[in-house]
Write a sequence for this structure.
């Protein structure tokens, strides 16, 4: 029997962890049966905070007979350290799990999620990236925001249900799910799967930093690991359906990050003080959002960055770059010659440089293709 180990780091996640555990416990086979309790195990790697996350974990797990779920403590407030502590618990034993599932405490997996992943693994994949989106409720409760995304960004951040409800035949979305089919889907810490042997061969998750002094840790494990995997010639498989949903709480609690400057902040705080419905006041300001930063995010992370570790994607998707394709290919080839084994910091920095140079060309080419 194939065994999966889910590793979920937590820090003050008592409010959300129950739904995550429930969604794992209710995974079903293609025939609709609950999967065997022996096929998966959950390890919550908890950094002690001010709530009672371990108690919430125990209460959630107790609802499901036979569910294997434990809590291990990790004192360091580090996404890398927490995941490594949980993975160590799963692998450093006589019978380690076959696959590691990186999860988050505010992410819900649909019932057929694990079966879809198993199908991809059966085809020979060793690392699987899975589609996921902010919870559907966000888009339905913020229709003005949803419309702004359709018009300015496209549908790349939408689950299919929202596309069906809000996108019309007259719309010409700029960025769509096709980006992930063409360039691969960057893995998300929320939900991706790694064969245990592959994880160990690649050296596992390693702490990496934005700064050379090692003070500013990159708060993720997925992308740095993905870079190393692709540089080693390992393909990242992609499961498009069924997609997971993750909480929009950070978007709701920190919407100022969406705004282009501080000129709106006083107005935001004034509106917030009069309306405690976070969805309502986010939607209130949606028509005034400057989407340029989000467009740059998509071009950098879903297009150009994906070409650094796999330059062949430029040739395979020449239409995405228009007349700039040759220049981009030369820039990436030259950089790769100078950086044969780059770390995540170097990849991120070069992706910023490429975005400064080629953002306009990519947007123009995509607009031409959908017009």
């Amino acid at each position: 029997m194939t065994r999966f180990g889910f590793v979920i780091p937590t820090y003050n996640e008592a409010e959300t962890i129950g739904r995550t555990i429930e969604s794992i416990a209710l995974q079903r086979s293609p025939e609709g049966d609950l999967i065997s309790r022996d096929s998966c195990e959950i390890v919550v790697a908890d950094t002690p905070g001010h709530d009672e996350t371990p108690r919430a974990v125990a209460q959630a797990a107790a609802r499901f007979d036979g569910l294997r779920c434990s809590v291990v403590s990790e004192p360091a407030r580090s996404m890398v350290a927490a995941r490594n502590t949980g993975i160590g618990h799963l692998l450093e034993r006589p019978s380690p799990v076959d696959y590691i599932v990186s999860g988050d405490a505010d992410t819900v997996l649909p019932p057929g999620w694990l079966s879809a992943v198993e199908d991809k693994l059966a085809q020979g994949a060793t690392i699987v990236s899975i589609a996921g989106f902010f919870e559907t409720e966000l888009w339905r409760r913020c229709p003005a925001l949803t419309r702004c995304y359709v018009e300015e960004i496209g549908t790349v951040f939408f689950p299919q249900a929202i596309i069906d409800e809000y996108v019309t035949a007259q719309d010409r979305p700029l960025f769509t799910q096709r980006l992930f089919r063409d360039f691969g889907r960057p893995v998300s810490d929320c939900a991706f799967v790694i064969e245990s042997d592959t994880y160990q061969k690649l050296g596992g998750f390693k702490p990496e930093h934005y700064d050379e002094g090692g003070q500013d840790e990159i708060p993720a494990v997925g992308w740095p690991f993905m870079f190393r995997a692709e540089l080693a010639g390992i393909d990242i498989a992609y499961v498009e359906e069924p997609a997971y949903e993750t909480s929009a709480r950070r978007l709701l609690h920190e919407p100022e990050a969406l705004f282009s400057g501080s000129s709106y902040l006083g107005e935001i705080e004034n509106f917030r003080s009069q309306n405690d419905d976070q969805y309502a006041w986010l939607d209130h300001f949606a028509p005034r959002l400057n989407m340029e930063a989000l467009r740059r995010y998509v071009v950098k992370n879903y297009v150009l960055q994906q070409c650094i570790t796999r330059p062949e994607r430029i040739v395979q998707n020449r239409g995405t770059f228009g007349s700039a394709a040759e220049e981009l290919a030369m820039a990436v080839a030259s950089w790769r010659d100078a950086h044969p084994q780059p770390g995540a910091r170097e990849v991120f920095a070069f992706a910023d440089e490429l975005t400064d140079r080629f953002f306009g060309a990519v947007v123009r080419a995509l607009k031409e293709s959908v017009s």
